Amino acid sequence: MKLKLEALLSLGIALGLSSVFAQWLDVASLDSGNSTKWPAPALTGGKSWGDAYAKASALVANMTLAEKVNVTSGILGPCVGNLGGVPRLGIEGFCLEDGPAGVRPVHGTSQFPSGLATAATWDVDLIYQRSHSMGKEFYDQGVHIALAPVTGGPLGRAPRMSRNWEGWYADPYATGIASYLSVKGLQDAGVAATSKHFIAYEQETFRNQYNRTEPYSIFPAGEQRSISSNLDDKTTHEIYLWSFAEAVRAGTAHMMCSYNEVNQTQACHNAYTQNHLLKGELGFQGSIISDWGGQHDNVASALGGLDMAMPGSGYGQIFGSLWGENLLELAQNGTIPEDRIDDAAIRILMPWFWLGQDQAKLPEVNAIPAYYNGPNGYRDIREAETAGLVRRIGAEGATLLKNSGVLPLKKPQRIAVLGNDATDNAIGTNACGTGYRDCPKDNLNGTMSMGGGSGYAYAPYLVTPLDVLKARSVKTGAEISAITLDTGVNASIQSLLPNSDVVIVFVNSWAVEGFDRADIKLHPNHDALIAAAVNSSSNVIVVMHIPGVVDVERWIDNDNVTAVIAAWYPGQEAGNAIVDVLYGDVNPSGKLPFTWAKSYDDYYPNTIIADAVTAPQSNFTEGIFIDYRWFDAQNITPRYEFGYGLSYTTFEYSDLLLDESTAHSDELAIQETNEAFAESEYTSLYDVLFTVSATVTNSGNVTGSEVAQLYASIPEDDQPPRVLRGFDKVKDLAPGASSTVSFELRLKDLSVWDVVKQRWYVPRGEFTFSVGPSSRVLPLSTVWSKST
Ligand code: NOJ
Description:
By secondary structure, this protein is an alpha/beta fold. A 6-stranded mixed β-sheet has the order 1-2-3-4-6-9. Strands 10-15-14-13-11-12 form a 6-stranded mixed β-sheet, sandwiched between helices. Helix 6 (about 125-140) runs antiparallel to helix 15 (about 385-395). 1-deoxynojirimycin binds next to loops. GO terms for molecular function: beta-glucosidase activity.
């Protein structure tokens, strides 16, 4: 409580009691929608966009008001989002397409592994390569602005949030690393990145006020308000803003504001989060793009920091008549100052210059008609090596949760395959992802390679596990038989399984944008399928295509369940990826990007708010204690801890060393933030203070890769027992071989947010740095003290 009060005082706010949260967070006094209190900062171009700033400013100075409005307001067109150009000044217009797993809705492109599957690899090279490869596909399809990546909204606070699989880790540090790399990967390929969704976007239920898609809209459109994420200053900084800061550092061209309200002001109108935090504190120079329907008001959004209205008046105006003609009129009558529109136009054009899109002739825009009335066209721009990359990420991300020695598969043997998830969707490869909800509950949906909504990308093909297992059997001499129905097959199971050496059951759970998962169960038929398998076989391997945690408690400890793999949503090469792991061609090294609880109730309460009220409120009362921080602080034993994952070999850790001679200044900032910090001896919050290193030895019999993790215990009363502050993957270590893992600790990694002084500081006292294979197995530790 003290902390929260200080937080408010620090913002120069007199405490009032008007808010419904007066006892917890004085939202009313924060006044987050007040653009007089939280004005837009002046543009400079930042560290890297100085030239672009000069060019964009000169161009905008030559534009009429109508032309400026044209480059800020969405219109109808072939892409998911479209901006009109200013042809007389050489601006042809802009095409914006989703999404984080590949170009959508466009054919002739790849379905990459989901963010979560990629996160589970903990492999910085693969995270970058996926984005870079995807970036080339965006570029080659004529897309100027990719509506990707997801960079911490959602972060994964709520286990049932149905979009967590689009993003990364339930941890700001690791998501920060992935945000930086994925923005850089896209932009190195020439397409502008849109980091999304800013900020505290952690549930779908009540995400917007319209009745268009959501069954939960109980009140008429306009009366219903979006869910308000209410969070204090410390939580904002230490948890939710962190990964967006990394996206800024990577030079993200754009940011997308989210659907929710933040502290009772619509995110896309929120002067405090957009003007003050993002453009001020983080020094963001690019443009803020509204999520489709996240803009509810022409004036509040403009003054609150929005720079690009999407889809604006496009999309058949189903979200209203936004900007365009309205903005013109509002500027002409003085309601919105013209220099605010100049600022927005410059922010949109700066990255266009910086990325060289003004010079480059992008290929013609290629979008499909089924979605938004665009021109027809099929152009396959996939590169030959992309399939291999998708396969590799799928295999490296597959997380081995249990193995009693049955894996890797011995050969030859009699294999029974069970479950419709092993094979093709009976109604078409992409039948689960084309629209927002298509994945008919009563259909056999086949291998779940991706979740649904705007995060889906069309699979050009889908290699199913059964395809690959059969092809393998030809080579290994195994016998294979598959039961690909999920129900009504008990008699078949009872006759096939006792005559099989091993049973591989494929199960899944569907998650789609717009609807949070009702629970954390597998598909309704799949627990029963596993139960039937364990009744007829003592060697059952379970493979799960899932968007996050699922309840495994009914069967996980059954001795007949001999191995379990979380294969996530792995993309078009699903079958190749999992069979690589099953046969040991790839030794599993995936580790959990979130905490896998034994019971849903073990997570903090009230993560998805579904109260039938016009102004639903989600109070982030757990504060900075999300995911493993909560489990550690509350002493709750999870089923599998954050960072957990098995291998076919074993690793030993030794020789921990903390070396201050490696200190160096920040070398990674493409753009710099303005975050304040106490330690005046450093030039940047991202300067490296020292390196911690350790030796990892492969103590088993097969080559393997290991993700070593570093956790810091920060000496401040309000901190969790430990927080992740480094990870390093050693790859393909031969039996008996050793390798060094090292972790650079930056000033920010040691800092906490001072709510009174509004800056980061390093607490005085002893820091413990622990290194090991997961958040709860940390064999090595060392102490570092900060005294002055
Ligand atoms: C809504 C989603 O939240 C966002 O991620 C996406 O980019 C837009 N729709 C456009 O499809």
